[in-house]
Amino acid sequence: MLDDEGESSVFVNRDLVEPDTIIDEERIVGRDDQLESVVSFLKPTLQGNRPPNMLLYGPAGTGKSLIIGAVTQQIIELCKSKGERFGVVDINCQPINTLDQAVYELVQTVAKDVDVDIGVPETGVSTKRKYRRLYELINEYYDSVIFILDEIDLLVGRRANEEPAYSKLLYQLSRASNTNEIEGRVSVAALTNDPKFMEDIDGRAESSFNPRDIYFPDYDANQLREILENRRDAFRQDALEDDVIPLVAAFAAQSHGDARKAIDLFRGAGDLADERGDEIVTEDHVRESQEEIDKDRSLKLVEGLTTQKKISLYATAAVVCYSKQTGSSVPSPVGFKVYQWVTDELDTDQMTRETYVKYVKELSTYGLISTSRKSRGRGGGMYMEFTFTGDPEAVMNRIVDDTRLEGIVEQKNLLQTVVNAQLNEFHKQ
Ligand SMILES: Nc1ncnc2c1ncn2[C@@H]1O[C@H](COP(=O)(O)OP(=O)(O)OP(=O)(O)O)[C@@H](O)[C@H]1O
């Protein structure tokens, strides 16, 4: 039974501190330049012209989805008042593995928006047919359209020596109006955390996509503070101790100035106060909540991964834990070699290097790993470098709890030898 105390909450509008809530423009902080750029690029839509394609790039939680979402929402409204149909087709590429799935997802998103039948099955028909259905729906229901492709760099989905799926998709969509497959005006906005994303794009796709760039830098502690201040009304008046907002902002500023993390921690501290029946959110709630988030994030996440992702992560963590060299970064070619060795030992499927890199990169969106792109010097090509933000040994231990990976623990010495041999090999080249 709930007593009076149990019913009271520090929140009066908890939605405001939910990560997916679409906030009003006046709550947006420190993104004036980006807002201005997106508005100016999309303005031609209102005058019946085609806007340019765009690339919004910057670290996680820096407002890319927020800004493009807020501006396109306004354009939908303005177009509606003029009797024009502006379609916003927004997908997140992170869970999508192939080009075919991406096109299906686009069809599904449009069909849902205009409330009609999808009209193509998910499997058993060609990707071409799915494209045809996509264009058919767009031509019937929209006068102009923008495709928003979030986390575009994670749409790899290719076999060895093939062009990556993101490259093909960008090529197709950005030329669909030139080829008259789409009759109205089309533009494509790609969102990514990878500042060097365009370097991996096929030349054909690069020239047809040819985007205007908009950069989203990290927030500093002051901006994070302001973002939180603007959502203070999620809480009951006087429910926040004075130091709560500065402390939440300071924690989030340490983790790359990610506004999503700041908001999650703000909400977490409030939830903890509620759980304990405390009337006021204090610094202690913030600190404890941060500890829980740190612990939970990596370990819960690891538990929920597929076996292939666990193996990829295990092999990457093993490079850090077993390396005799100092430094805690893992060059992706070394991580991949170790991954191959582990899959051989376990006698399980082996993915391509692209897929291995995609899996590990995905973990960076959860803050478990950070990635950067490195050059091997003149003519040596590029590779990714992975750095663990938390403790790689805890990650390995958690993965071993999965019975399918137990066998590998007995091979610890061998694994150590493989790691160091691969590192030596890599640094010799
Ligand atoms: N400038 C801002 N003002 C207010 N809230 C913000 C701001 N920037 C981000 N947020 C909030 O932080 C959260 C994350 O923002 P958003 O999803 O736009 O980030 P992103 O850059 O698209 O991240 P990712 O690369 O992880 O997709 C959202 O809840 C958003 O409302």
Automatic annotation (TrEMBL):
**Chain sites annotated for binding ATP:** 62-66, 219, 231
* Recorded superkingdom: Archaea
Family annotation (InterPro entries):
AAA+_ATPase, AAA_16, Cdc6_C, Cdc6_lid, ORC1/CDC6, Orc1/Cdc6_arc, P-loop_NTPase, WH-like_DNA-bd_sf
Q: Where is the AAA+ ATPase domain?
A: 50-220
Q: Tell me, which GO biological process terms does this entry list?
A: DNA replication
One of the entry's Gene Ontology molecular-function terms is: ATP hydrolysis activity
Question: What this chain does, per the record?
Answer: Involved in regulation of DNA replication.
Similarity field: Belongs to the CDC6/cdc18 family.
Mind telling me what this protein is named? ORC1-type DNA replication protein
